[in-house]
Amino acid sequence: MNRIIRIAAALALTVGLGTGAFAAQGAAISGEVKKIDEGAGKITLKHGPAKNLGMDEPMTMVYRVKDPAVLKEVKVGDKVTFEAEEAASGYMVTRMEKAK
Ligand SMILES: [Cu+2]
Question: Looking at residue 67, which CATH number applies to its domain?
Answer without folding.
Answer: 2.40.50.320
